[in-house]
Every structure is written in structure tokens, then in C-alpha cells.
TrEMBL record:
It comes from the Bacteria. GO terms for molecular function: sulfur carrier activity; sulfurtransferase activity. Keywords: Cytoplasm, Transferase. PANTHER family: PROTEIN YCHN, SULFURTRANSFERASE TUSD. This is Sulfur relay protein TusD/DsrE. GO terms for cellular component: sulfurtransferase complex. Pfam families: DsrE. InterPro entries: DsrEFH-like, Sulphur_relay_DsrE/F-like, Sulphur_relay_TusD/DsrE. Belongs to the DsrE/TusD family. GO terms for biological process: tRNA wobble position uridine thiolation. It is found in: Cytoplasm.
Length: 122
């Protein structure tokens, strides 16, 4: 059974952490799953966001999973997050997409929804 985790909650939300916990559990059981970051959840991919050392880092926890981390490009650009290609295309001075995350279009979400047996939104 394949699962799509559609993550829409901001990184400061407990729901975002629950999504990570489920992804970790699915991975540990070798279950088939995909993730997609949309709406405020895209902020997890901002490499310029700073958190104190005594707080868990949601971004780095996702990166440790070593899975594909697609992020909605429109939602990301709206929130000031861009990769090198989009920075050049939109004449921005720098890029700040964290390593391991990838900007993609909503067509990818549509494909993921269509191929998943279940969808869970956080």
C-alpha cells in the first residue's frame, strides 16, 4: 500500500512534526510512501531559517531520511524560497532552498495523488 503524506502545516506546527514521525515509521517498516510540501509547509525548505541549537531542527530531520523532498514551487516562491534556477529566472539575487529539497509543480502532486492508495494531510 502506498501512502502520500501531503504536508501543509507550518514547520512550527505540531502537525508538521507528526508528519515527520509517520514518515520515519513508514521508512523503518519499509513501507512505500511519498511526501509533498505545500502551502505553509514549504517553509521547512528555507535554508536561511535559524533556530536555536537547543531546538530540534525539522529541516535536518527530513534531510536525514534521504528521500525525495518535493516542494511546491509556487508556494515556495510566494514565501521567499527559491532554488538557483528560479532565482535566475525571476531576477532574484540569491537562492535559499535547503539541500535535499526540490521545487516542483503541482502536476507532481496530481500524479502522486493519483498513484497513492491513501493520502494523509498534515
Amino acid at each position: 500500500m502506498s501512502t502520500l503524506l501531503l504536508i501543509t502545516s507550518a514547520p512550527t506546527s505540531i502537525h508538521a512534526w507528526h508528519a515527520l514521525g509517520l514518515a520515519q515509521a513508514l521508512q523503518s517498516k519499509n513501507e512505500d510512501f511519498r511526501v509533498f510540501f505545500y502551502q505553509d509547509a514549504v517553509m521547512v525548505a528555507n535554508d536561511l531559517q535559524w533556530l536555536p541549537d537547543d531546538q530540534r531542527q525539522l529541516k535536518s530531520e527530513w534531510q536525514k531520511l534521504s528521500i525525495r523532498l518535493p516542494v511546491c514551487v509556487s508556494a515556495a516562491l510566494l514565501r521567499g524560497i527559491t532554488d538557483q534556477d528560479n532565482a535566475k529566472r525571476h531576477q532574484l539575487h540569491q537562492h535559499n532552498l535547503a539541500a535535499g529539497f526540490e521545487l516542483v509543480g503541482l502536476g507532481e502532486l496530481a500524479d502522486a495523488v493519483q498513484s497513492a492508495d491513501r493520502l494523509l494531510q498534515f
